[in-house]
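User: Predict the structure for this protein chain, please.
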Amino acid sequence: MLRAAGAGVGDEVVVPSFGSVEVAEAVTLAGARPVFADIDPLTYCLDPASVEAVVTARTAAVVAVHRFGRRAAIGRLHGIGQRHGLLVLEQGESEAPYDETAQRRERAAYLDARLRGVGTPDGGDGHTYQQYVVRVPGNGRPDRDAFARALRARGVDCRVPVKTPVHRLPEFRRRVVLPETERAADETLALPVDAALTKREMQRIVSACNALGGLLQPAF
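Assistant: Here is the predicted structure, written as structure tokens:
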């Protein structure tokens, strides 16, 4: 898509750092330079204000990535594109069947109502819960990682959704200020919310998380 849009040598393309490296790699393969913007802390997608702040005369495009079942603010990003003459591209997630999405939402609502000591996801804008991502408060990565290890020891299959922001990777290292990206990388944890989970398994997730509430300072 970038090549078809004419992005190439000398151009800049605004992308998120919170997420997979493939988007930045695609920009490089097209001959352009990835420029990283910060994310909205509720959606984990590009923050339009941060995008506009990094636009220069060399910016040719913006790549918006939808994350975890939440959509990026496409309307606002297209507005930026129109003001600056930029192409806005989207990278979506594979959509689950309606029944599966409905079941995921039911399980997410169950967790929302019962979890303590973690920040539950914002369910606005038709969240489909491709992943149920919570925030583990504390003083950075060791707290979240210790929490994850303790959950796994209790039989909960959790995972860190983004271990390292792209701007920290050696091949894309940049001196940029992305506070929401950094905080999300240190605090986020994806809990199971699959449609196949039984009520007993959901209860185990809640019990395991709530039993660890004393580890977290300060708690949400």
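The helical segments are 22-29, 48-54, 74-84, 98-114, 141-153, 179-187, 199-211.
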